[in-house]
Amino acid sequence: MATVSPERTRRTAPRETRRRQLIDATMKCIARRGMGSTTLGDVASEAGLSQGIVNLHFESKDNLLKETLRALANEYRDKFDKALRNSGPQPTDKILAIMEHDLRPSICNQRKLAIWFAFWGEVKSRPTYRRVCDEWDQYYDDVVAKYCQELIDDAGYEGVDAYLVANTLAAITNGLWLSCLISPQTWDREQARKAWISYLRGVFPRHFG
Description:
Distance between the termini: 70 Å
CATH architecture of the largest domain: Orthogonal Bundle
CATH class of the largest domain: Mainly Alpha
Largest sheet: none
Structural class: mainly alpha
CATH topology of the largest domain: Tetracycline Repressor, domain 2
Number of strands: 0
């Protein structure tokens, strides 16, 4: 029986498998080198492939980076949605599930955060990145605001705006992520949870008090 060499298998992997391999390599390079210092050659070397393969699948560094950001956002959203599905039925359960998701080690770790912040740093000058990030931000705000509105309706909280609460929770999370990235030696996951809960208690005392 004829056998297929490992080298031939590497060259003839399915298109989506190869693209995912290159995107994963790109994430590793960005986490180590930063976005500006990452080249197609770096990505090819990290993936164990030729630069020609990178060009074949993405044509340019810009296309590769755009697809990497989309993959990163889709991965986050899949885990976000799964956390909600696996949580309890009450809006308080959903909000706490979002908190736990955003602070879990698989999301809140230096490597993953370095990649996110690298892209966020480019949003102002790259409309494509802005569209991807804006799309995700809107989805996040809509979901969190929905559960916040259910709490507002349930207890009759006056003067509380669901979208303002959602935006504030997102800002708290981003600040906690930044602290984790730049001060990993002193960052504490439990203290991060307490920051979230402290804000929720202030806004929704009948539910989190």
